[in-house]
Design goal:
Number of strands: 10
Strand content: 15-25%
CATH superfamily of the largest domain: MutM-like, N-terminal
CATH class of the largest domain: Alpha Beta
Strand order of the largest sheet: 1-6-7-5
Distance between the termini: 44 Å
Shape: globular
Largest sheet: 4 strands, antiparallel
Number of helices: 7
Length: 280
Amino acid sequence: MPELPEVETIRRQLAPLVEGRTLRLRIDDPRWCAPLAPAEVAAAVDGRRVERLGRRGKYLVFELSDDVCLLGHLRMTGTLLYDPPEGERYARVRFDLDDGHHLLFCDPRRFGTGELAVGADALERFFASRLGVEPLGPEFTGERLRALARGRRAPIKAFLLDQTKVAGVGNIYADEALFRARIHPLRPAGALKRAQLDALRDAVVATLEAGIGAGGSTIDDYRHPDGVQGSFQNEFLVHLRRGEPCTACGTEVVKFVAAGRGTYACERCQPRPRPRAARR
C-alpha cells in the first residue's frame, strides 16, 4: 500500500536521523534481499556512511559512501520504524546506526525488498528499467504526460498504475487524482484530450502533495518512523467512499474494478465512457 507520499514522508522524517551516520545491517529474513545472500548485502553496507537518504518513485535510496546504494521497497505492508519498543512484530531487517539508535524494517506480508546498486551507472540502469517520470519533478509536464499517453488504449487508471510510465502513483492516489481531474478511470489514456491530460497532470501533483502534507494514508499497516499513523485517509474525496455522497455533486460514489484494482469514482463528475460499438 505505501505509495509515493508515504515513502516520501518516511524519507523526510528519517533523513536528519540517518544522514552522516554509519550503518550495520542485520537481515533476519533472506527473502528480503533474494537472490543476493544476506551476508553479501551486509558486507557491502556495513561500516559505510549514509551520505544521503533519497527517494525515487516508491523506492527509498540509502546513498552510502564509496558509491554504494541500498534500495528499499516497502511493497504492500512494509514500514521503517526508528527505535521502536522491544517486541515489535514482523521485523525482517535491522539497521544499527553508530550513534546507538536503530531502524527496523517491519513487514507483515513479507513482500518488501532490498537491493544493491554499486556505482552511478548501475543505479541509473536499475531505475531506467523499472521507473518512468518522477511526478514531483520538473520533467513531469502536461506535454510529457501527453507524449506518454499517446496511442495508449489501456484505461487511464491502468496507465497511472504503470510504474514505467509515472513513478510512485498507486491505487489510492490514482483514484483521487482522476476525481480531481474529472476523468473516469476506464477512459482510454490515448483518447484523452489535451486539456484533460493537462488537468490530470496538475491533479496528480496536487494529490501527491496533499498526501505528503497529511503524512500519507494509513489504511492497514503504514506508520511513520515514530509509529504515528498518517491522516490523508481522512481527506479522501472518493477512495473507499462507496455509497457515500460525492463531495462535489452529491451523487453516490461507486466502486468497480479497473486495472485489476478496486476503484472508486463519481460517475456524474467523471462520466463513464460509452462502450465501443461492435463491428459487423
